[in-house]
């Protein structure tokens, strides 16, 4: 089921049905907003990011809300380190594979190093998070709702469109969306749920570099509430804002030649990788 009606996605009192949460990419943007939205007395938040100083700021904000925050500076591309971190976290009610990077062609051919870096973080990094989490959750006892654990992967509305300005980014987000949705069908038999989150444009350091129109741009805090609300309601695909998602689906359904001609009129996403 796809979540389109945003007003029905957030929980009325914003009390989430999980207490042990792990979030990657929590040092800024959506990851930071998700961590703060999950922070509450009794919650334990395992937070990772590459920027240790910014990650510490997120942890401090979560602790101010009454949560126990355990930050860890770690790169999601390091499979062994991720496996050790997740295995040592103890029970996990919710894991959010949020870490990702964005880059494109800059109006030219997408450099090979950019394509490889985008796939390494956005696809391999998600697998390095979700696969150890699946193993850990399979051994956990179910909660009161019969769920052993939940895993959410952050994709994008860009997963629906083969945009010439960001080939690797669109493809990487499509890959993790399809993977999570397909896996949910079998893993729910073991009491584990997977969710594919497909946001539109969010005001973050990642989108600050964009030099093209970003319709329906929203704050990270709003996006975090929509994401968590969709997870709490058991949505397999959580897509927002719905007009942009619908537009992306329609654009993705166009004949490839026509779609390419239309998108080539738009500025390309910057080819420089984020720091």
Walk me through what this model shows:
With 275 residues, the protein is an alpha/beta fold. The chain has a single domain, classed as Rossmann fold, CATH 3.40.50. It has helices spanning 29-38, 52-64, 79-87, 112-138, 167-187, 220-232, 242-252, 256-263, and strands at residues 2-3, 20-23, 44-49, 68-73, 94-97, 149-154, 192-199, 202-203, 218-219, 237-240. α1 packs parallel to α2, α1 packs across α6 and α4 packs parallel to α5. The relative contact order is 0.17.
Strands, helices and their partners?
Elements: E1 2-3, E2 20-23, H1 29-38, E3 44-49, H2 52-64, E4 68-73, H3 79-87, E5 94-97, H4 112-138, E6 149-154, H5 167-187, E7 192-199, E8 202-203, E9 218-219, H6 220-232, E10 237-240, H7 242-252, H8 256-263
Parallel strand pairs: 1-10, 2-3, 2-5, 3-4, 5-6, 6-7, 7-10, 8-9
Helix pairs in contact: 1-2, 1-6, 3-4, 4-5
In short:
The chain is an alpha/beta fold. The chain has one domain (2-263): 3-Layer(aba) Sandwich (Rossmann fold). 41% of the residues lie in helices and 16% in strands.
Q: What proportion strand?
A: 15-25%
Q: How helix-rich are the residues, as a percent range?
A: 40-55%
CATH superfamily placement: NAD(P)-binding Rossmann-like Domain
* Intertermini distance: 36 Å
Number of strands: 10
Tell me, what is the CATH class? Alpha Beta
Instruction: Write down the domain tally.
Output: 1
Number of helices: 8
Note the main sheet: 8 strands, parallel
| Secondary-structure content class | alpha/beta
- What does the overall shape look like? globular
**Strand order within the widest sheet?**
1-10-7-6-5-2-3-4
Mind telling me the C-alpha Rg?
A: 18 Å
Low-confidence stretches: 1-5
CATH-defined fold name: Rossmann fold
Please, what is the average pLDDT? 89
Q: In sequence order, what are the helices and strands, one letter per element?
A: EEHEHEHEHEHEEEHEHH
CATH architecture: 3-Layer(aba) Sandwich
């Amino acid at each position: 089921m796809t979540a389109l009606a945003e007003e029905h996605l957030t929980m009325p009192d914003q009390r989430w049905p999980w207490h042990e949460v792990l979030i990657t990419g929590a040092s800024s943007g959506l990851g930071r907003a998700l961590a703060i939205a999950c922070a509450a007395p009794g919650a334990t938040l395992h937070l990772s990011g590459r920027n240790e100083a910014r990650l510490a700021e997120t942890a401090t904000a979560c602790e101010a809300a009454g949560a126990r925050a355990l930050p860890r500076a770690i790169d999601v591309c390091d499979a062994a380190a991720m496996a050790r971190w997740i295995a040592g976290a103890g029970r996990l009610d919710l894991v959010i594979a949020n870490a990702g990077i964005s880059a494109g062609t800059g109006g030219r051919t997408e450099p090979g190093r950019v394509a490889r870096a985008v796939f390494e973080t956005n696809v391999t990094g998600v697998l390095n998070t979700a696969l150890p989490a699946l193993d850990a959750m399979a051994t956990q006892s179910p909660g009161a709702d019969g769920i052993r654990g939940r895993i959410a992967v952050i994709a994008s509305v860009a997963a629906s469109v083969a945009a010439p300005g960001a080939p690797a980014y669109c493809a990487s987000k499509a890959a993790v969306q399809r993977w999570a949705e397909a896996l949910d069908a079998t893993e729910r038999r073991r009491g584990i749920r997977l969710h594919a989150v497909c946001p539109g444009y969010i005001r973050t350091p990642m989108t600050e570099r964009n030099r093209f129109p970003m319709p329906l741009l929203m704050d990270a805090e709003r996006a975090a509430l929509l994401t968590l609300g969709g997870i709490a309601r058991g949505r397999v695909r959580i897509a927002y804002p719905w007009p942009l998602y619908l537009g992306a689906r329609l654009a993705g359904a166009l004949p490839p030649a026509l779609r390419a001609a239309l998108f080539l009129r738009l500025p390309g996403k910057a080819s420089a990788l984020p720091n």
